[in-house]
Design goal:
It is built from two helices and six strands, in the order αββββαββ. It is α+β, with helices and mostly antiparallel strands. It folds into two domains: 14-84; 89-119, no CATH class. It is extended and about 70 Å long. Residues 122-129 have low confidence and may be disordered.
Length: 129
Amino acid sequence: MNLTIRTPVVPITLDEATSLLLSHAFSGAIGPTAGKGVTYSLMAEDTQFFTFSVALEGDDAGKPIDRYRVVIDRSSGRIRAAELIMLTECQLADAVLSATSHHLATFSRFTDGFTEYFVQGFRPGEYRI
């Protein structure tokens, strides 16, 4: 008779998940890392997953920063493939309204990755990205 004793899985902690995230980001999984630092924030946490926003930032003045959604399984420490975070026009309009109490007047997304928007009530170009 074979008996197998299974040890319960102890979920990883936030500190352990953060360490995994940084190792993953610096491995080149989300882009070239030479001369860059990693910024991240915890977006969500539940009993199964940690979800982070992560980006590589350097001295690339004027270039937009790509932010990625990275999900880490708490029981195994496995990292899902990073997903690029992109805001829709509606999501951007809601964020601008919440932050400034003004409505989004125009919105354009260009093929080079730049996004431009203007906020009503401000001089043109004052809130331009």
